């Protein structure tokens, strides 16, 4: 079961990252969007490109950060890649997301949904970094799991949007709902997983290799 979930995370995260690179590096900006979103992206080119390419690094690197084998065999790689994940992916990607959330399509509910997600992404990333600098490995693990659950909002968003289209809900109504639905359940699943682990008596502590030099 654990392997199956892990395989799904790799496939979905890398799949959405590949989609983002294809759509934003090779197609004209906003080609796959409706006219309102396209106009918005064209008006904020730097913001959307910065967000998409920085955040994509989080989706590419994130799954590998959870590999116990990599952490044990190449702890330096885990540290380097973790710095890029947090600094570029979450840091740059999150600040650009916060900026873009103020222009998001879908009115105040969508704007607030994306802005809260961006703030939570930045906050959990900061807490994960601070924890590992203090050598608190278990705490680092909890915050980084929350943080990556939020990174996966990029995946869940792209699952829910076509589903809402198939269900016949108009895009203008579905988009603000999905702006919340794409991340709140992810966070709840992460909290549920922690509670389950604790109830089963499993150690929450990861490898010592995570601790700073
Ligand atoms: C988790 C924190 C994130 C937040 C708060 C966030 C926020 C946003 C916002 C506000 C927009 C503009 C939407 C609009 O104008 O209606 C957007 C678009 C976009 N974001 Fe993110 N995002 C996050 C994570 C990611 C990640 C990890 C990726 C990696 C692929 C990503 C890729 C994109 C893409 C490709 C778009 C353009 C819309 C599309 O093609 O569907 N985002 N994001």
UniProtKB/TrEMBL annotation:
It holds the Pfam family DUF2306. InterPro entries: DUF2306_membrane. The keyword Transcription does not apply. The keyword Membrane applies. Keywords: Membrane, Transmembrane, Transmembrane helix. The chain crosses the membrane at residues 7-26, 46-64, 84-106, 112-132, 144-161, 173-194. This is DUF2306 domain-containing protein. The lineage of its organism: Bacteria, Pseudomonadati, Pseudomonadota, Gammaproteobacteria, Lysobacterales.
